Amino acid sequence: MPDSILTVTDIHKSFGALKASDGISLDLREGEIHALIGPNGAGKSTLIKQIAGGLKPDMGSVHFEGRDVTALSVAQRARLGLARTFQISALAMDFTVLENVVLGAVGQSGGAFRFFKPAMKDTAFLARATDALARVGLDAARDTKTAELSHGQRRQLEVAVALTLTPKAFLMDEPMAGMGAEGSKELTGFLNDLKQEAPILLVEHDMDAVFALADRISVLVYGKIIASGSVEDIRSNPEVRTAYLGEEDAA
Ligand SMILES: Nc1ncnc2c1ncn2[C@@H]1O[C@H](COP(=O)(O)OP(=O)(O)OP(=O)(O)O)[C@@H](O)[C@H]1O
Known about the structure:
By secondary structure, this protein is an alpha/beta fold.
């Protein structure tokens, strides 16, 4: 079995009486896409925030590459190679594609906006940014205004930001949201390649995408993981069908 790069152990988080994370443990292994699914309000975003560092768990730990990162900030975790993409994010629409990669990479690693101009002159950094754009297929658009990109291209641009920081693992929150069928298909192929570079913990509502992409699926309901396994395990699990997939079948 491949090594785990990310391990979440017995995470608890309550908002008042509501247990949004009720003893969650999971891991992310090299080379895989591990999808986290569950109904609205199950606690997926709350978990991702605790893994990324934006929200402090009441109890439990997050280890990244064997190191306890539970007390580290988002920027500190990003610098270690834990990349979060597709949060409602901050692409500057009036900036060019390349400027956004630089801006995003500086910002995610905890740099202030005043580091933006120096970074635009840093040839090594620019080479990494340009390389990242080539990797996501946006090199021809590097001088295009970001506002002119399609929805799917903006998603790819966000991945380019993360790639510039040479990530060791990705946390992705609903990358397929708002994409048409064609865009989803393209992004599915892209993520399938990307996981070879760094494994992906993927929160996604699009079940077709999850079933096409995931190596493993964990199902979260009311803050607890009720099942974890391969696509086939999850598809055929009666508890999952009742708690979650039943909704889809009925639709
Ligand atoms: N900051 C907060 N304060 C109070 N309650 C919160 C807070 N953040 C989340 N919650 C609650 O915690 C529960 C889990 O929310 P969360 O957003 O993690 O679910 P989710 O699985 O990501 O849902 P969705 O699929 O709709 O995005 C919900 O009942 C939500 O209302």
